[in-house]
UniProtKB/TrEMBL annotation:
GO terms for biological process: rejection of self pollen. InterPro entries: Self-incomp_S1. GO terms for cellular component: extracellular region. Keywords: Secreted, Self-incompatibility, Signal. It comes from the Eukaryota. The keyword Signal applies. It comes from Senna tora. Residues 1-19 form the signal peptide. This is S-protein homolog. It is found in: Secreted. Belongs to the plant self-incompatibility (S1) protein family.
Length: 164
């Protein structure tokens, strides 16, 4: 009888457990939530290797084929408001840097970038095209100086390197 009761109680308890869990999730959802999609549009049609990170949030190195998207989703930590990425491709192993999301600069919640050799272009919702183009940051130090309050060290496209 005791073990039979256990099977009756468990289905009654589970919905309560889930209700408590989802309440917790909803509380987190009140932070601004941003999604950034990055399109490989290299004119050479090469693979694009990228590595995006913010302080306390290293998304690791990823390689995407031409015309594919990389999604950097749910950046919802209020204290993590600056994401930097490095990019490289086979014919140019130089790391090219850009701040992909900067809370002080960006107003988008669904942000889109198109990556080309000459530099990244952000999607402009006013013109509905990728015409908000940026020069590559020549080095990470320069990328860091774009914002005053958020010190981020994206180091390079090497996952073993830590933030300072
Ligand atoms: C990608 O680049 C090609 C030219 O190389 C251009 O025709 C195309 O519109 C670009 N894709 C997007 C989504 O802008
Ligand atoms: C949010 O940011 C704080 C401080 O920067 C950090 O300690 C915490 O781990 C972060 N949380 C998540 C979920 O990234
Ligand atoms: C690699 O990229 C850098 C920065 O955009 C550029 O200055 C350099 O000329 C490129 N090298 C080659 C071999 O294309
Ligand atoms: C990555 O970092 C490790 C440790 O610092 C180093 O030994 C390695 O050469 C680096 N790899 C690249 C591709 O930079």
């Amino acid at each position: 009888m005791a073990s039979f009761a256990k099977y009756l109680i468990l289905p009654l308890l589970l919905p309560m457990v889930f209700a408590i869990m989802f309440e917790g999730v909803e509380a987190i959802e009140t932070y601004p939530k941003v999604a950034v999609a990055i399109l490989n549009n290299l004119t050479s049609h090469e693979d694009l290797t990228l590595h995006c990170k913010a302080e306390h949030d290293d998304r690791g190195e990823h390689t995407i084929q031409y015309d594919d998207l990389y999604n950097l989703n749910s950046l919802r930590n209020l204290t993590v408001s600056l994401y930097s990425c490095s990019f490289r491709w086979a014919s140019n192993e130089t790391l090219h840097y850009i701040n992909i999301y900067n809370e002080e600069r960006d107003t988008c919640y669904d942000c889109y970038w198109m990556i080309r050799e000459g530099g990244p272009c952000a999607f402009n919702f006013d013109t509905a095209s990728y015409d908000n183009c940026h020069a590559w940051n020549s080095n990470l130090q320069y990328a860091k100086t774009l914002t005053s309050n958020h010190g981020v060290d994206a180091s390079n496209a090497n996952a073993s390197i830590e933030f300072d």
